[in-house]
Amino acid sequence: MPALRFPALAVGAPQVVASERRDCKIRPTFIMVDNSLGAADRIITLRDSYTPDVSNAVAAPGAEVPDKLTFTVVITGCESLRDELKDIEILGDLLCYANVADAGCIITVGYEPIKE
């Protein structure tokens, strides 16, 4: 199962954890946030980012970016989620970001592709 480890990035430049694939969805399997060296409490968000296909109703659909999960990690704290992610499916890119960029807040996200 692939995983990506990175410092917390802000909403304006989120980390792309996994990119969209036409043949499958993406399921996040775990997220671990180590904020032990962080500068403050961090609000972490997992987001889906995809563009729907063209249809008769919409000739040029815009990007959809729904939030899938948001949680807070206190300063000097660590948080690990696994069971809370079991029902989340990502149709496009799996994005992750914090409310403020923080090099002291380290995020690790694991994921797996789900064939349709």
Rg to the nearest angstrom? 15 Å
Q: CATH first level: which class?
A: Mainly Beta
Mean model confidence by pLDDT: 93
Number of helices: 0
Q: Tell me the count of domains.
A: 1
The CATH topology is given as Jelly Rolls
In the sheet with the most strands, the strands line up as 1-8-3-6
**Percentage beta strand:** over 45%
What does the largest sheet look like?
4 strands, antiparallel
Number of strand segments: 8
| First and last CA, distance | 18 Å
Tags for this model:
0% helix; 4-stranded antiparallel beta sheet; globular; Jelly Rolls; mainly beta; 116 residues
Q: What is shown here, in short?
A:
The chain is mainly beta and 116 residues long.
Describe the secondary structure blueprint for this structure:
Elements: E1 3-8, E2 15-18, E3 24-34, E4 42-49, E5 67-73, E6 78-81, E7 93-98, E8 102-115
Antiparallel strand pairs: 1-8, 2-7, 3-6, 3-8, 4-5, 4-7
Q: What can you tell me about this protein's structure?
A:
By secondary structure, the protein is an all-beta fold. It has a single domain, classed as Jelly Rolls. Helix content is 0%, strand content 52%. It is built from no helices and eight strands. The protein has strands spanning 3-8, 15-18, 24-34, 42-49, 67-73, 78-81, 93-98, 102-115. The strands form two sheets. A four-stranded antiparallel beta sheet has the order 1-8-3-6, with no helix packed on it. Strands 2-7-4-5 form a four-stranded antiparallel beta sheet, with no helix packed on it. The model has no long low-confidence stretch (mean pLDDT 93).
